[in-house]
């Protein structure tokens, strides 16, 4: 992909390059495409007891129903496990098959995503070149994510309607199978790794944008979500657009709770991270749903 394309928020600033896509050097937007798992009898002179006959009939009927159900499954999609495997594999291919604007829209609407149910609108100001995970995470988070591997990392940075806050949202496409993703999700859940400040993802700061000063010291709130039905980790990290340092960042899950009094919570930065991550995850699932639809 070409280098990052900063995109300024409206009004008065040109919109994103319509040719922007994940393919390196692509001149036109790519078309979404995918591809890269004993019979019962009565003996002579012996009459079967009524209860035995009923049991035999029920067994035969049951076997017939089971056989019919299995046959129906084989004739439709080849079985649930195969369908789930295809779904998972397709999700892992989205990073190179879907245009930038479909995964990271130029504008994202967040009805009710702000503090107290206020509406939010986010404008994309920069898209990072797709690539590996080197330097994208703090060393400890890199170590935690190592078991699932890094196939590709996509990132974009947004600002809110007032240009007071900046938020980087990322999609880490892993090399893992469903079992490995489930294991990582279980670890995040049971060990509460998404609450640890030493496991924050890093922001993407693009020169010449409102996020130019958005570095490690400016991280205020964050969220990390490990998907189990796709080889993807979704995350977001937010901060103030004026580049101020943050001494005590707070995880979004805590910052959005009622009664939270930290500076990130009071500013709504937990809502910024959580709200934007949720909507980018929805976009990912929408694209996956389109990709896995069977022709009528």
In words, what does this structure look like?
With 296 residues, this protein is of the alpha+beta class. β5 (221-226) and β6 (232-240) form a beta hairpin. Residues 1-80 have low confidence and may be disordered. It has 9 helices and 7 strands. 36% of the residues are buried. α2 (80-92) packs across α9 (269-292).
Task: Supply database-style keywords.
296 residues; 16% strand; globular; 7 strands
What's the layout of helices and strands?
Elements lengths: L49 H27 L3 H13 L1 H4 L2 H4 L3 E4 L9 E8 L11 H7 L6 E9 L4 E9 L4 H14 L29 E6 L5 E9 L9 E2 H4 L7 H5 L1 H24 L4
Parallel strand pairs: 5-7
Antiparallel strand pairs: 1-2, 2-3, 3-4, 4-6, 5-6
Uncertain runs with pLDDT below 50, 5 residues or more?
A: 1-80
How do the helices and strands follow one another from N- to C-terminus?
HHHHEEHEEHEEEHHH
User: What Rg do the Cα atoms give?
Assistant: 25 Å
Query: How much helicity do the residues have?
Result: 25-40%
Counting helices, strands and paired strands, the structural category is: alpha+beta
């Amino acid at each position: 992909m070409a280098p990052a394309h900063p995109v300024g928020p409206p009004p008065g600033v040109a919109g994103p390059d319509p040719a922007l896509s994940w393919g390196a050097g692509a001149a036109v937007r790519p078309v979404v495409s995918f591809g890269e798992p004993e019979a019962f009898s009565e003996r002579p002179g012996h009459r079967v007891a009524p209860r035995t006959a009923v049991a035999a009939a029920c067994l035969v009927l049951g076997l017939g129903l089971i056989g019919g159900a299995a046959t129906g499954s084989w004739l439709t999609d080849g079985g649930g496990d195969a369908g789930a495997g295809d779904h998972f594999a397709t999700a892992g291919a989205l990073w190179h098959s879907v245009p930038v604007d479909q995964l990271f829209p130029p504008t994202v609407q967040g009805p009710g995503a702000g503090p107290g149910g206020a509406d939010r609108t986010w404008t994309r100001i920069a898209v990072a070149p797709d690539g590996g995970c080197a330097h994208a995470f703090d060393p400890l988070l890199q170590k935690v994510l190592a078991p699932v591997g890094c196939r590709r990392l996509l990132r974009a940075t947004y600002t809110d309607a007032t240009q007071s806050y900046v938020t980087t949202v990322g999609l880490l496409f892993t090399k893992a199978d469903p079992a490995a993703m489930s294991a990582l999700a279980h670890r995040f859940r049971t060990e509460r790794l998404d609450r640890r400040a030493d496991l924050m993802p890093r922001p993407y700061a693009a020169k010449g944008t409102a996020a130019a000063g958005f570095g490690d010291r400016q991280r205020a709130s964050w969220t990390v979500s490990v998907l189990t039905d796709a080889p993807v980790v979704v995350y977001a990290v937010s901060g103030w657009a004026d580049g101020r340092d943050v001494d005590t960042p707070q995880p979004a899950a805590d910052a959005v709770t009622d009664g939270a009094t930290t500076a990130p919570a009071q500013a709504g930065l937990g809502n910024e991270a959580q709200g934007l991550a949720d909507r980018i995850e929805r976009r990912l699932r929408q694209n996956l749903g389109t990709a896995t639809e069977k022709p009528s």
